[in-house]
Amino acid sequence: MADTDDDEQVADLGPDERAEGDDALGDRGAGEDSRAKEWVAQAALTDTRELAVDDEDEADAEYDRDRQRHREDLEQDSRSARERQDTRHRHDVNRAEAEVTEALRLAHSYELSRDNFRRHADAERGLAREDRSRAASLDAGAAGRDDPQANTDRADADRYRASARRETSRANYDDATADSFGADAREQRQEAAQVQVPEQPPAAEAVRNPPQPAPKARKNLKNIKQRKPKTKALRDWGIGE
């Protein structure tokens, strides 16, 4: 019955009233089409912005990867520099220790030679004292005598005195040689004391260029604006599911 009443009401409308109704329906349809087009355009803009945000995300990720690679390169360079410095330090320490060891070895060898020649000189001086003592004893026994035995004792005394002079000369030579070896030994020990053995440098000095923040890659030098919240999706505009 409601449809019958509406039909009757439409039938009762005049031509002008029916035309106005048709225009109103046309305007409402046109408005709905305009809004639909606006929603579609807005949805397309949303997709474009989302793609732009995704591009920025990829650019940020690439920048982070570049920075990580740069930091790793710096750390590797620092480790390599430390290894080279440690190698140089070990070389310098080994060289210095070898110099000290060689100097002390020579000093010890010279001291052994010094002591050896000193012992020879002491023994030779002892022999010289004995020869002089014997010569003096023979001279004392032959004193005031003019017999053949006295002449023999005097000749023996002369030989003992000559032997004493030879032993004294040898002792003087060996003492001088011992003094020379002693001087060489002292010189070697002084050289050993003057050798500078490098100390291990602190770790803070080993890494001269600590890792710094990685510079931005040239392709990422553009200003990255603060991200805006993503716009509404297509379904938020009443289109799509």
Automatic annotation (TrEMBL):
Write out the ranges of the annotated region (Disordered). 1-241
Compositional bias (Low complexity) at which positions?
Answer: 191-208
Q: Locations of Basic and acidic residues compositional bias?
A: 25-38, 62-86, 111-134, 144-173
Q: Where is the composition biased (Acidic residues)?
A: 1-10
Give start-end positions of Basic residues composition bias.
216-232
What is the protein named? Uncharacterized protein
